[in-house]
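Attaching the record inline, Q. Sequence:
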Amino acid sequence: MTKLKWGMIGGGEGSQIGPAHRLGSGLDDAFEFVAGALDHRPEAGRAFGQSLGLAEDRAYGDWQEMLAGERGRDDRVDLVTVATPNATHFEITKAFLEQGFHVLCEKPMTMTVEEGEEIVRIARDSGRVCAVNYGYTGYSLVRHMRAMVARGDLGAVRLIKAEFAHGHHADAADADNPRVRWRYDPAQAGVSAQFADCGIHALHMASFVIGQEAESLSADIVSCIASRELEDDAMVNLRFDGGAVGRLWTSSVAIGRQHGLTLQVFGETGGLRWSQEHPNQLYWMPLGERLQVIERGEAGLSPEADRTSRVTIGHAEGMLLAFGNIYKDLAAAIHAEKAGTDIDPAANLFPRAEDGLRSMAAVAAVAESGSRDGVWVDARPPMFR
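Structure, as predicted:
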């Protein structure tokens, strides 16, 4: 199959997210990295792009230059990844969608619900793919959890418990460090800190697995380090549109937790438990039976799991491979669009603009509820009510 052409905005030298995208996009040889505007400093971005093998005329100084340079080319990029500071996502994503490019945007997709609704409308009107990088849903066993729920292995889902907690911002002496401080500054981060940073990953994964969307929520938010304006810990109760109850905890001051993204799903006839720090094992407890351990890569799993399992059983798979699965889905979607055919259902699982919008509505709802002593509020974006 012909390689698709890929470009990136942001993710320059020294960034954490840039290498993850460049490695993930190349895992299946489905994309060729041909263009980029990789740094807010034009010359640094051009130099770094060329050091990665970009042609001189496609190592751009900024995203506007990249848009102008790519839109008129016969060999223009098929997919653009936006991995810039949060407040720039809306403007860049909007501009590239309007010029007919497919886009993968880092989360959060936008800073406001209103911006999110505009992106959804533009993506729908243009017919372009607009994806949001909730990359943890690329893990093979997370997709198998979704398949088990969908085929009725658990019966009706009663309760889902999600966590995303770490302790990397727990040192009060570090509160004035610029690399940390901006995350808790409303002028730079918006209305939420920890929930908007990590909590939305947990919420999206919960919705992805159970096939239900958050309808209402009640939040208790707190700044455990008093100098912070925005929360560093949140406990959120949720009601989903399919009847499930949700409990979500997210924290950046949980000393001893490293990258504690976990999910538990409890249904009428069984329960599931998975942890991102141990992604190769899924714990399955059927009602009245013994606990079972499902291993990634074993025979007899779902098509969704089989498609996204890359190495033999017993070998570790991690975040880069999960990112790679998102890119694998996007390649399938773009090829299907070019050919005018339907996408393989097992590949049609990448997070969309609608998911990014729902996340922003949940962020706004958590901020509102938390400021009003936990009052229950509508968690849906207005256009989906």
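The chain has two domains: 4-132, 137-313+353-378. The chain is about 35% helix and 25% strand.

More tomorrow.
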